[in-house]
Amino acid sequence: MAVDANANETYDQSVIREDLQEAYTMISPEETPFVSAIRSEEASNTLFEWPVVELAAVDYTNREAEGEDAVTTNAPNNAIRLSNYTQISDKKVKVTHTSQAVDSAANNVQRLSQQIVLKLKELKRDMEGMLTDNIAAAAGSSGTARQSAGFVAFLKTNTAFETGGVDPTLSGTTEGFPNAAATAGTTSIAFTEASLNTVIEEIWNEGGTPSIIMCNGGNKRRISSAFTGNSTRYKDAIDKKLVNSIDFYDSDFGEMTVVPNRFMRTNNSGGADDSYNVLVMDPEYAAVAYLDQVQQKPLAETGHSISRLIWAEYGLQVDNEKAHGIIRDTTNAIA
User: What's the pTM value of the predicted model, to 2 decimals?
Assistant: First the structure.
């Protein structure tokens, strides 16, 4: 069919706005399950402390004769002091005056307000990765950033790891901040249901009641496919939907939510491969302590550009590491 030579077709137009549906689409993940699960607290100094009080062991001979005069004075329940350093994380946004002025596709993603939103999401992901990391605390110095210890560096009681692995240490004998991160084993093995249940039992014996199992994607799939507590099953005889995942794990010591986390960092196993951590945690006994809440401020304009600084100063508080546990040195094997 012929087309009139003077018909103005889209093929002849060079100023058509791209069809981006007036919105930008992000595939980058932004959920942060660790930070979302734990509390928020306030810190009052760059080195912040919190007390931990424990009860004495059960006395299976606590029997006294009637009328006893020489009653023994029991040792007091004094607190120990744990601590961590805060660290500063930031993002800087800079856009030109022209970018602010033009009417662009993709919901004006290049404008200052949209760039601030995107950088806030990036900052949240950075925090998630660092707070779940195996990294010791550091005081910093002039020109050197302070470093807040990550969750893995606190866990030294209810732990499972392979040959060559070493638990983290504190700056004091029983008090202080994590001054050495955990050492990965020289080998790694597939995550097992037996190791998970052993750590859960250890936490329970210490008085803890964990409610979350947090792991990477491969170990989440392994729980679904290899753990006998959840054989592949039909969800419903009516809809015939095959379910091959576990969102809850019913242990001998209570039901736990299985939460995959994209941002948990791998550990160098000492071999050719990386190893992965599986966290068993009670979120009531951990918090992000903010010395400076997330905020933004305008920076001095330079030339034809506008800048904003987004930052927060914060640290991880683990109230009692015995309420949590970890299985280290696991491979990413699914079956």
Answer: 0.84
